[in-house]
Amino acid sequence: PSSATGNLRPGAEQKVVFITARVHPGETPSSFVCQGIIDFLVSQHPIAKVLRDHLVFKIAPMLNPDGVYLGNYRCSLMGFDLNRHWANPSPWAHPTLHGVKQLIIEMYNNPKINLEFYIDIHAHSTMMNGFMYGNIFEDEERFQRQAVFPKLLCQNAEDFSYSSTSFNRDAVKAGTGRRFLGGLLNDTSYCYTLEVSFYSYMLGGPTSAVPYTEEAYMKLGRNVARTFLDYYRLNSLVDRPLAPTPKTR
């Protein structure tokens, strides 16, 4: 039975993809991208079935629920930019970060679990398209391997820009999830910030901006999920013919 395949076999090593979103309450597009990922992964789409058989997805869709409830732009109820407190989150002042970080560390310390990806979803107020931030490593081979996922995503999503994707180690970003976990996890884990524009994506020339819609954000989420199929070379396991990607809401 399918329930006993891949990562679900008793004793099998689990490959985990950890996704978080909406740490900044004003960045509403991140919630639609995350919704697209979730809706696709729980659907009956043949690709989704293969992904569920081979990977474990852990998703925290809203890291800053009190800030969202209050209508804050960037901070939590207590006035913290949570995305600068990953290094030492307080269970009292930053409870969502504390809980997620504890779970990630537990998984990291479990020999049966391989935490392969951490992706934190944001929205960007000045740039166009979807793009990623990654980390800088001294090890050239690790640096090159880190570029594989965004390159594959660029092939799958017309609105994702690899040329806007950048790898950095700015001091101002040191407390972010991507930077902190990139330093904590070992060299088989890849940590990214996925950014998507509040406005538009560019198709073709510099004058052809297409305004983002809720559906377009969700489509980017579906394309993020589908890219894991290419990354793990699972394409041959998908039942043919492929059904069209389900439209959600």
UniProtKB/TrEMBL annotation:
SUPFAM superfamilies, alphabetized: Zn-dependent exopeptidases
InterPro entries in alphabetical order: Cytosolic_carboxypeptidase, Peptidase_M14
Cofactor requirement: Zn(2+)
Alphabetical GO biological process terms: proteolysis
GO MF assignments: metallocarboxypeptidase activity; zinc ion binding
Superkingdom per UniProt: Eukaryota
Gene3D superfamilies: Zn peptidases (3.40.630.10)
Keyword Hydrolase listed: yes
Catalytic residue positions: 195
Domain Peptidase M14: 1-232
Keywords: Carboxypeptidase, Hydrolase, Protease
Family under the similarity heading: Belongs to the peptidase M14 family.
PANTHER family linked: CYTOSOLIC CARBOXYPEPTIDASE (PTHR12756), CYTOSOLIC CARBOXYPEPTIDASE 6 (PTHR12756:SF9)
Name of the protein in its database record: CBPC6 carboxypeptidase
Provenance organism: Chordeiles acutipennis
Organismal lineage: Eukaryota, Metazoa, Chordata, Craniata, Vertebrata
UniProt gene name: Agbl4_0
